[in-house]
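Think of the structure tokens as a kind of shorthand, similar to the way a musician reads notation: each symbol stands for something richer, in this case the local conformation of the backbone. In the example below we present two proteins back to back. Begin with the first one, reading the sequence and then the tokens, and try to describe in your own words what changes along the chain.
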Amino acid sequence: MKNGKNILSEIEKLAEKRKNEILTLPDAPTSCGCVYFVSADGDDENDGKSEATPWKNLSRVSSFEFAEGDEVRFRRGDVFRGFVKTRPSVKYCAYGVGEKPRLYGSEKNYADPDLWEIYDSEKHVWKLQEKALDCGTLVFNGGEAHSRKLIPSYRGGRFVCRYDEEKEFIISEEMTEDLDVFCKIDSVLTEKPSKGEDFPIPALDWESRGELYLRCDAGNPGEVFSSIESLTRRHMFFVGRNEGVTIENICIKYVGTHAISAGTTRNLRVEGCEIGWIGGAIQHYAGTDPNYPEGRRGSVTRYGNGIEIYGGCDGYTVKDCYIYQVYDASITHQITTNGKPFELKNIKYIGNLVENCVYSIEYFLDENRGVDGSVIDGCLIEGNILRRSGFGWGQQRHNTHTPAHIKGWSYTNTARNFVIRNNIFDRAAYRMIHTVALDGASCPKMDGNTYIQHRGGVLGRYGENKISEPDDLIFDENAEKAVKEILGDREGKIYYC
């Protein structure tokens, strides 16, 4: 065990250097097809085929039928709002000079006093004057502050307090902190049974809008702040099953679900991107959930990852990206198989800087109906700087005991050729690693990683759960021994702070 008094300063400098490298990566055009340009002062009636005739909006990009090998270039320094439906074997990248092009999920900057009206002057609660999509949170002045999102349950045709379902959720009474936000979206209900009970709950889709309330003690939020951005309930890049998609040198921010969302696909590559302030929107209401850790009460699921593949893959690379302030995971590959075999192959997460996400890197293979032949085959997590897991805005979640830098949960997680090496794990609000599998041979090989954690904090959980769950390892005087003998990381370096 080594004292980490000076190591945090060194890591801070290293992370800042890495961030600057990522933010200033040069463009690398590689098109073997047509090239299309998009700029903030373009026109969607243009042909988009030159810098002099660019398109303007993301909707134009989404609707166009690109050919394989085509390239879409967004002008650096510009802001684009909306989302992008990708096409197979198309590259989405940057051109020009300056900062990476910024693609925002937020529909507008809400720092306009005309957009807000007072709802309760005594409690300083304001209401947005237009209907809005659900949001994960609101971000003020580029990250100087953010909202606490209130999540009531929905029972008996009304919103009720989540921790006291006998009590009706009254907006002004429950918005007790400055910058609290609540999205009231219940215009469409479903009668689907939930956990054996049949009662209506709000049904959300990509177009569901409702009323947005914000407590702002300092006055009209449009006057108090110069920037108010909503983590809006949408993905930025819809990849789906499209193969061969590349996303390079793009800044993606203020997205309430996933910045980049893919299903079963091949050869997805994300490189040199900045991805921040992601997630937290409501995925679904689910009525009463008796399995919730806090007991029998209404279940409201929030979600949102930086880059996600949900399904199988063959070729999935995330390299040289700066990812921060994500509600769930910065990067993940995952699937619950439901008895259908999946292969997740040739996965590489290399050289990324991740800060203040609940899970720095997540993976899981949940063979929930028994072992069905699914496998993670060839996964390399190398040279990443992973910092402050669980210290970001996403930790306003209810399950505060889940954060980890490497989050594999405790599923079957059948894997081979799985290596985690030469990474820096810099503090975690809970576990540093959670890598458990039914068979111990499926656990990743740990090699040459650096572990920095508070004395008495949790190192993590590693090993097989064939009979029972492995014990948590504590970051105490035995941590070095645990890293070398239990994790098998003989070259690992240990520091406490």
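Once you have a description of the first chain, move to the second and do the same.
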Amino acid sequence: MTTSSRWEEFKASMQPRIKEWKFMFKRVQESPLSLVGIAIILGFVILSALSPVLAPPPYADPFIIPRDEEIAKLSPLPTPPTIEHPFGTTDQHYDIYYACIWGTITAFRIGITTVMVALMIGIIIGVAAAYYGGLADEALMRFTDIIIAFPGLILAMALVIAIPTVFTLNVSFILVVIFGLTTFFAFITRARMKIKVILLIIFIAVLASVLLYPLNLRFSLNNLDKVLITLWLIGWPSYARVIRGEVLRVKNEDYIEAAKAAGTSDLGIVIKHILPNAIYPIIIMASLDIGSIVLTAAALSFLGLGAPPNYADWGQIIQRSRNWIGRELIRYMHVFLIPGIFIFVFVLGWNLLGDALRDVLDPTLRRR
């Protein structure tokens, strides 16, 4: 086959995809609010990328908010915006401008990493429950119901307090838990595992426990790390529920039965056939959840359970304004109003972007 014929074959194979991408861009352009959402998110991305230029860090850790020590000696009260401090200062004179600029990176870190981890956990649990059904579905979904039954913010507060700042884990204990969960998952999903394989897993777990018993892992977490872990633990059930419903809809299609008849493994069927046809609703859901996750993290910081007092975080800055919201509201309104505007615009941008993704990816809406 000549090079020109290969190129023509490649162009012919790419033509449907190119046509689909053009249609998707056209759908986005037809929605002005979607363009506004994309512009807002791009603006925050640029702002976070230019943070070292817009607000040069004075310390080794760029997320430590600089403090005007000279003014703090004279008065602990907040100061209004000035040339030196464009957004003013909080009590104890932490720079609000610096906190808002570097807080953009903190917001992206909290929102995107939480969604990615929660999405991964939700996909694994939801797909396993729907694809295998039976005992697997009952066990995994009842556990999901237990997490959903608790109010999200209250559960987050409890977990942030419960997670220790410094803790030690025994490596052998971790291995036993991993092998135990693997064996349990193989049992409830009726995986084709011979008894020899199960006995081998148990033998490896026992041997590793004996050999690695003296080895310990020591972890040190700050408050923001504990907030991230908490949001991971409470964020996945909604994704598991949605992906389970989509997999139940897809798994009985004819092409799934054909793949099973062809001898395709369960993992191959899930990755190649089920997920590509079931994942779009939770992608839309994830884009909408980033804003709500940032709001939850800000609420935890406002309650004193999030970022430390001198950390660049929007919720933590608003927390420092609690003493001025009830009294002298107008005089010190910049302390909570400016970071509040940052949170509002950031969440609004992700919500509008989620609407754009819904118009593009949702098969019930995109062809209208």
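Compare your description with these statements about the second chain. Residues 96-132 form the longest helix (37 residues).
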